Each structure stands twice: as structure tokens, then as C-alpha cells.
């Protein structure tokens, strides 16, 4: 999967959040979107994912064989963000089964294994509403990183994680990142430890 942005901009009312973003994201690449609070990192990540509409410019999704339609791209991508909520009424087991109706896990990953990888195997039957914020973040990371899709979008992936949680995140990326395209929006080096390409949002003001 390759994602190309050509002169892309986003504005809210009269405020341009960023303009003239021309970038290519390639299969297997690791990209970090960097900048201070409120600079537009999350907005750019959501624009790249097609989750919010850009105001100008063109975004193209493609594989070596074909161009992917915008309304098909979400099938190729998972998103982990602090602002997307889990369904609180589900148990962890139900949350995983629900997710798998839309995105299956990587080969060899069963629900039990996914829980174990993020240290939540003892919480399989607990309702999400009783999970701590760090436990919820571990679930979001497992659902995103272990899904069998070519593109991972991670917005502040270590939000609410303790040191052990950060180690779990880094282990998941290292072990299961594979040849996928990963884009991280972050202020924290621990979150973008694997990235070689840095996009400074301040360059696009
Ligand atoms: N729906 C919206 N309507 C109006 N302004 C918005 C909207 N969403 C975001 N903004 C504004 O866009 C700017 C960029 O926000 P964004 O959340 O992308 O920043 P960020 O760099 O991810 O910040 P942080 O590091 O704090 O998460 C902010 O000024 C924010 O107030």
C-alpha cells in the first residue's frame, strides 16, 4: 500500500491547520508526525486515513496493481487513538470477537494469544467499563497492531501506559510490525522509536 498526498491542506473555519503537504508513504515505511500540542498532528493523521475530509489537494491510495477507492481504504487500515472509545458493555472477549467481524487478526493470532500479548489474559471476562485507562489502551493497541491490514495509524499510542505497557507496545511493533506501513502521531520518542522518517507539522503552516 502506498499513500500519496499532493498539496493537501485542512482548515477549520478560517484557520488553516496545515497547507501544501506533499508526501508519499510507502509500504514497510515507519513515519512519525511530530509537533507541539494543538499543532495538527492528529488532524493530519486522520486526513491521511480519510477519517476526516481535507479542504484542498489530493490523496491517493494505491498498491502496485491498482488504485484503492477512498471508501475502500478503511478496509486496509486500523487506527488506535485515545479518542475512539471501546464499547463499555462488552467483556474483553466480546470486544475482540466484535472487532474480528470487521478485521481478522494476523495468521496465528487467536483471541487468547492477543490478550496474553498485552498482559490481559486474566481479564477475558471482565467488562470494558471496569478496565483502567491503561488497560483500555492495551486493548486498542492489540486490536490495531494484531489486525491483518497493510496500514497502521497510531495516535499517541503510549497514552495512559506505564513503563511495562510501553515495553508491551514496543514489543508488539517490533514483532508484528512486519512489512506494514506505520504512521505515528506523537510527542514522545518512546512512541516513535521505530520511525526513520519524521514529518514536522510546523513545516506546513
Ligand atoms: N472539529 C474541529 N473544529 C475546529 N477546530 C478543530 C477541530 N478539531 C481540531 N481542531 C483544532 O485543530 C488544531 C489541531 O488539533 P490536533 O488535535 O490535530 O492537534 P495535535 O497536534 O494532535 O495536538 P495534541 O498534541 O495536543 O494531541 C487545534 O487548534 C484544534 O483546536
Give the topology:
Blueprint: E1 2-12, E2 15-25, E3 30-34, H1 41-49, E4 56-62, E5 67-68, E6 77-80, H2 92-100, H3 111-117, H4 133-145, E7 151-155, H5 163-176, E8 181-186, E9 197-200
Parallel strand pairs: 3-8, 3-9, 6-7, 7-8
Antiparallel strand pairs: 1-2, 1-4, 4-5
Summarize the structure in words.
The structure is a single chain. The protein is α/β, with parallel strands linked by helices and 205 residues long. The chain has a single domain, classed as 3-Layer(aba) Sandwich (Rossmann fold), CATH 3.40.50.300. The chain has five helices and nine strands. The strands form two sheets. It has a five-stranded parallel β-sheet with strand order 6-7-8-3-9, with helices on both faces. It has a four-stranded antiparallel β-sheet with strand order 2-1-4-5, with helices on one face. It is globular, with a radius of gyration of 17 Å. The site of adenosine-5'-triphosphate has 12 residues, from helix 1. It comes from Chitinophaga silvatica. Pfam families: ABC_tran. InterPro entries: AAA+_ATPase, ABC_transporter-like_ATP-bd, ABC_transporter-like_CS, ABC_Transporter_VariousFunc, P-loop_NTPase.
Primary descriptors:
four-stranded antiparallel sheet; binds adenosine-5'-triphosphate; 205 residues; ATP-binding; ABC_transporter-like_CS; 25% helix; ATP binding; 9 strands; 27% strand; alpha/beta; Rossmann fold; transport; ATP hydrolysis activity
CATH fold node name:
Rossmann fold
Instruction: Indicate how many domains the architecture comprises.
Output: 1
Query: In CATH's first tier, which class applies?
Result: Alpha Beta
Tell me the radius of gyration.
Answer: 17 Å
Amino acid at each position: 500500500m502506498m499513500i500519496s498526498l499532493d498539496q493537501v491542506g485542512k482548515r477549520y473555519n478560517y484557520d488553516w491547520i496545515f497547507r501544501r503537504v506533499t508526501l508519499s508513504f510507502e509500504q514497510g515505511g515507519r513515519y512519525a508526525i511530530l509537533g507541539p500540542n494543538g499543532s495538527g498532528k492528529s488532524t493530519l493523521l486522520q486526513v491521511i486515513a480519510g477519517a476526516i475530509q481535507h479542504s484542498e489537494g489530493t490523496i491517493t491510495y494505491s498498491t502496485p496493481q491498482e488504485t484503492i477507492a477512498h471508501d475502500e481504504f478503511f478496509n486496509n487500515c486500523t487506527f488506535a487513538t485515545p479518542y475512539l472509545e471501546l464499547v463499555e458493555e462488552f467483556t474483553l472477549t466480546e470486544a475482540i470477537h466484535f472487532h474480528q467481524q470487521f478485521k481478522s487478526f494476523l495468521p496465528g493470532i487467536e483471541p487468547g494469544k492477543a490478550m496474553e500479548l498485552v498482559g490481559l489474559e486474566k481479564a477475558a471476562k471482565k467488562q470494558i467499563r471496569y478496565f483502567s485507562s491503561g488497560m483500555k489502551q492495551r486493548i486498542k493497541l492489540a486490536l490495531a497492531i494484531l489486525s491483518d491490514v497493510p496500514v497502521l495509524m497510531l495516535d499517541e499510542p503510549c497514552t495512559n501506559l506505564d513503563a511495562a505497557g510501553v515495553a508491551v507496545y514496543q514489543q508488539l511493533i517490533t514483532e508484528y510490525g512486519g512489512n506494514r506501513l506505520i504512521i505515528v502521531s506523537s510527542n514522545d520518542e518512546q512512541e516513535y522509536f521505530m520511525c526513520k522518517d519524521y514529518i514536522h507539522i510546523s513545516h506546513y503552516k
